[in-house]
Description:
By secondary structure, the protein is mainly α. It has a domain at 34-60. It has four helices and no strands.
Amino acid sequence: xxxxxxxxxxxxxxxxxxxxxxxxxxxxxxxxxxxxxxxxxxxxxxxxxxxxxxxxxxxx
Length: 60
């Protein structure tokens, strides 16, 4: 039987860096792609510049 994400973290005893724990959380709940899309959307103007950003969108 597969453990839910909550049970996985509840039973894990060792200490992990926050970044590693966050990546595990995204993986367990299958949210990696959604998180990456959100990061891209938020950084769109910085990535493409203000001129291009004003005429485009980063929506997926």
